Amino acid sequence: MLAQVRCAERIRAIPSAGLRTFPAALRRTASARGDREFDHATIRAFRFPSVPAMSFPLTARPAVLALRNSKIREVANAGMGRSDVLPFWFGEPDEVTPQFIRQAAIDALQAGDTFYTQNLGIPELRETLAAYVSRLHRRTGMDEISVTNSGMSALMLVTQALVGPGDRTVIVTPMWPNLVEIPKIMGADAVTFPLTFSPEGWTLDVERLLATLTPGTRMLYLNSPNNPTGWTIDRTSQEVILAHCRRHGIWILADDAYERLYYGNGQDEWEPVAPSFLDIAQADDRVVSTNTFSKSWLMTGFRLGWIVAPPLLIEEIAKLIEYNTSCAPGFIQRAGVVAVRDGEEVIARTQARFRRARDHLVAGLRAVPGIETAVPGGAMYAFFKVGGMQDSLSFCKRLVAEAGLGLAPGIAFGPEGEGFVRWCFAADTARLDEGLARLAKGLALKAAA
Fold it and tell me: For 195-342, where are the E strands, in sequence order?
């Protein structure tokens, strides 16, 4: 962003005749005085009523201008459309949505389900989700459920409802970039708190996090199982964090998108769900859970999610849904009902398949000299460290150009992710093996350069 205005007197020194071309005149004045160019938003903050609004650039407000572009997309854009590139950059399963779920959407469309629905979702889906959450966590009523147009929309809606300009938020990182940027859209202060890496696993320093969650903090954002690291919070840590946030009136937004893609604590048996704040929260706790149909039911393109929150907050979220999207499409919600009601076998099969893929990829990565990686406890990603690599964005672009391999740069997940690369392992082992061969090729080319 351009440098800030250094002195109001320099603005006032511009002749009145130049007010009609104020920004250009200001830049000329700055140049003559040896200053850098001025930030147009800061200029406008001086509120000269005689300066026509048309004099300012045709662009968004400062909070939006300051948002970072997705570096995952930047890498993907360099390789999309190339048939010779193996893409593992996005967090998306490699299988289409199961037929019985697709058929439910088709049947609803053919039945004419193309009209508006209730803001919070059709009652049948809300009731189905309430029963699902009650079975996995704690008893949850329909009045605590809101259906949303995707898990992404759920995160945005909760933030719109609870976070405002100047509010202090704390985000555990590395983190999916969308979730780090959302509070900034609302003008909030986003403070990041990093996990610690070792080949034995990513860890959270709970005591240091509590010290960061100072009185007056508005919201803690926590994604577990985590994208990109696979780190999964344990029950004891949840209890300590919840007690602290309860004392200081801090909201907890738990992004539970990967809760069903959980592989346990090194145990062989299938774990049905990751530890959740919903397991321990009381009715009057400031705890909100957001979730999505995208990962567990292989429904990324359906754009359907939900929120679990106190009933009074759900009532206000209904207003925000009206002013954002009005409602989720009815025929999509009908597919959601069928997915939740009949999709447990899909989840079990997907979790087992991804667990095998995780073990296969981690073993392959650990056999590559210079690479360090932990075994992810959940989600669908290996987040590995490449020895000597300092610019993950350039590294991933070179992998696309020279090795035909599409991975996500660690810097996309914040400064804490630099030096790392994310690989989505939601794929069959033959495809992963080809990717490993291409990674070895890319590292050999890097070493030879």
Answer: 217-223, 251-255, 287-292, 305-308
